Amino acid sequence: GNSVTQMEGPVTLSEEAFLTINCTYTATGYPSLFWYVQYPGEGLQLLLKATKADDKGSNKGFEATYRKETTSFHLEKGSVQVSDSAVYFCALRKNTGNQFYFGTGTSLTVIP
Amino acid sequence: GAVVSQHPSRVICKSGTSVKIECRSLDFQATTMFWYRQFPKQSLMLMATSNEGSKATYEQGVEKDKFLINHASLTLSTLTVTSAHPEDSSFYICSANPPGQGNTEAFFGQGTRLTVV
Fold first, then answer.
1. Contact B46/A49, CB-based, under 8 Å?
2. I need a labelling partner for A84 at 20 to 30 A (CA). Which of A25, A43, A47, A63 fits?
């Protein structure tokens, strides 16, 4: 089946610290992979995506590389800011159909 | 990017009443929309797939008579929580994808925070 396993939180970091949120997946075929971010009181927003192996998605200083050999899509940022405090969801989408599968989300709090 | 609008953003209702949540695709037509439910500190769980002009497809364990879905047009899907109870209190969110764009991201509505008292 299809599933996403995501590092449990909550994660608390100081401003300018390095961030890694681990994400691994199980899927049939070759899914597309996504990171979504949910700020307090809001819906989900796409942060970045990768549609094939070895692709790197990047946005707002965040990066994630589609690693087929390890079935992973870890999220990284070199220097986090207070404004990055949010819940981050890893997700996959099968190549057929529009259904998404989400991880459990990782809450990140960045303190000044 | 594409816009999906969800309304209302918050609703408080009395136990036993029904609540309707609307999901609209504002700048594209969506033959399929998805309804998710998110409990506190948990992930989004797919409840059902809303299909324009036909019956919705419900995930295992989701009561179709309790969560009524209507997808009457290519831009609107509604989720009605019937005879709501406090355990139905949750964050409900819909999503849709513009057609013909292959593996694009899903666009999400802003979500609806339902509180049943």
1. no
2. A25
- b/e for B77-99, b at 16 or more Cβ within 10 A? bbbebeebeeebbbbbbbbbbbe
* Contact at CB, B95 and A32, closer than 8 angstroms: no
| Cross-chain residue pair A102–B43, CB shorter than 8 Å | yes
The per-residue pLDDT for range B34-74, each reduced to its tens digit, is 999 988 777 788 999 998 888 999 999 999 999 999 998 99
Pairing, β A23-26 against β A32-38:
unpaired
Give dist(CA A82, CA B34) in Å, integer.
32
Say if residue A10 is preceded by a cis peptide, omega within 30 of 0. Answer: yes
Token readout for A84 is: 């990055």
